[in-house]
Amino acid sequence: MNWLRLTSSQFLLSQRVYWRDLGFALTGALLPLGLSLAYSISRHGDGEIAGYDSGVYLLPGFTGFVLLWIVYNVINSAASRRDKLIYKRLRGTALPDTAILTGEAASGSVTSLLQVVILLVVGTPAIDAPIPHNPLLLLLGILLGAIAFSLLAIGLSGLLPSGEVSTWIVTPVIVAMMMTSGIAMPIGELPGWAQHLAPYLPSSPVVEIVRTAWLGRDFASDPTATGLPAAVGLAGSFRACAQPIGILCAWAGLSFSMGKRFFRWDPRRST
């Protein structure tokens, strides 16, 4: 119970620090949400993708896209607070290391999770999209994605030279994953070499799980397939998503190991 209280305190502190840098905060809060809504709504009625109206197909994919921005939020916050010696001062308090990092990850994730809710509430009626077919699987995919992206960001933050350059490194990576993870187009339409790599990126399993759970069709068993996938029931959607769930768990485990190996509490150059 005491650990939860300390973690909550770290979360609130991280939120205060996050919103003080208004430019960075608004980029992480408004850019992915605005792009996701604008692109999905603008494509509504503009042909079909994989047997669905383009907007309906894209909306679940962009749910995975806003979750991917957890990496942007957490990795930039971690690098910046390390450089400003905030972490060094926090370690001198009663806060355990796990509470500091958990609170930081939760703070970086909450913005994206709220964006997911907005996409569901605003995007669904705006393009006449169906309500999620399997809400439990949808929730599982969202939570697994948030955990994996948070751990990945914490692990990678230790490899960045400074907070000043982290944005310039992370943003192009997010854009590249957007183009290759089935968010905006089926993986089966990518070049041959990319089709072999894309399903194993950390963002692809999230998109496959969310789209399968939302639309009630198997977008997960063979992510490189084109055309309308087979319909699946509630139990069948869980079976179809077994592989992407396993890939996400593997990424979470790998990212946890990277965090233990590479995360640094102090800046590279002491001042």
* Total domains: 1
Query: Mean pLDDT across all residues, rounded?
Result: 87
- With strands numbered from the N-terminus, the spatial order across the biggest sheet is 1-2
What proportion of the residues form beta strands (DSSP E)? Answer: under 5%
Helical/strand content category = mainly alpha
Radius of gyration: 19 Å
Summarize the helix and strand pattern as letters: HHEEHHHHHHHHH
Share of helix, binned: over 70%
How many strands appear in the DSSP assignment?
A: 2
Low-confidence stretches: none
Largest sheet: 2 strands, antiparallel
Terminal Cα separation, in Å?
37 Å
The coarse overall form would be elongated
Number of helices: 11
Task: Describe this entry's structure for a reader.
- This protein is mainly alpha-helical.
- It has one domain (2-262).
- Helices cover 72% and strands 1% of the residues.
- It has eleven helices and two strands; from the N terminus they run ααββααααααααα.
- It has helices spanning 2-20, 22-43, 54-83, 86-90, 97-126, 135-157, 163-180, 192-197, 203-215, 234-240, 242-262, and strands at residues 48-49, 52-53.
- It has a two-stranded antiparallel sheet with strand order 1-2.
- β1 and β2 (52-53) form a beta hairpin.
- The protein is elongated and about 55 Å long.
What order do the helices and strands come in, and which of them pair?
Layout: H1 2-20, H2 22-43, E1 48-49, E2 52-53, H3 54-83, H4 86-90, H5 97-126, H6 135-157, H7 163-180, H8 192-197, H9 203-215, H10 234-240, H11 242-262
